[in-house]
């Protein structure tokens, strides 16, 4: 429906059948794939790096939304763009020179996005919003799939949607963490454009049915 995008997070998929899982969510009608990169330092978990991203790129047809939950992401930008990131997302909390990092991602040819932890206010992004393609509002503390949605992030969505409107900007607003059929419709109405969902999709028996149900609620 309209311009709303659904981005399954592969974190919750069966990694022993990665290509099959990717094909299954693409055939189920997803719009992007969300890839969670964790380094064991910025977050207390580890996943995969640019090599696996490049392998995913070879078998996927939809854009890749790469979410870097790592320290010093500025050292890795080039590697992830080369690997095939379409959106490349850094955490505000892990970057000192955010303007520089965002501009660098653009120069490298990807779309810059910035993520906010649940406790970080959106106003810290005021002077960078005109340069980003997407803002990722985390609705759980990053690190793991299957956590409970933190409901006060709705205030950040409202602030971002208002700022976007008042300033004639067009960055996308994305939510990530605990997204399911109970909150997706309300978030959509408040202005969210991109919905990441890991466990809600991959723990369902029918990905297509789940994604179609989501779309009905948007
Ligand atoms: C959390 C990740 C999310 C996670 C979402 O650190 O950024 O992308 O996979 O999983 P669910 O939808 O299960 O909360
Ligand atoms: Zn994520």
UniProtKB/TrEMBL annotation:
EC identifiers of the protein: 5.1.3.1
Q: Where is the active site?
A: 36 (proton acceptor), 176 (proton donor)
Q: Which PROSITE patterns match?
A: RIBUL_P_3_EPIMER_1
Q: Which reactions is this enzyme annotated as catalysing? A: D-ribulose 5-phosphate = D-xylulose 5-phosphate
Instruction: State the pathway, as annotated in the record.
Output: Carbohydrate degradation
Any signal peptide, and if so, which residues? none
A GO molecular function term, named singly, is: metal ion binding
Alphabetized SUPFAM superfamilies for the sequence = Ribulose-phoshate binding barrel
UniProt keywords (A-Z) are: Carbohydrate metabolism, Cobalt, Isomerase, Manganese, Metal-binding, Zinc
Q: Where does a divalent metal cation bind?
A: 34, 36, 67, 176
Q: Does the keyword Metal-binding apply?
A: yes
GO CC, sorted alphabetically, is: cytoplasm
**What's the cofactor?**
Fe(2+); Zn(2+); Co(2+); Mn(2+)
Domain of life of the organism encoding this protein: Bacteria
Tell me one GO biological process term.
pentose-phosphate shunt
The positions annotated for binding substrate are 9, 67, 143-146, 176-178, 198-199
Check the record and name the Pfam families matching this protein.
Ribul_P_3_epim
Note describing how the cofactor binds: Binds 1 divalent metal cation per subunit.
Q: Identify its protein family.
A: Belongs to the ribulose-phosphate 3-epimerase family.
| HAMAP family linked to this entry | RPE
Could you tell me what this protein is called?
A: Ribulose-phosphate 3-epimerase
**What high-level taxonomic lineage is stated for the organism?**
Bacteria, Pseudomonadati, Campylobacterota, Desulfurellia, Desulfurellales
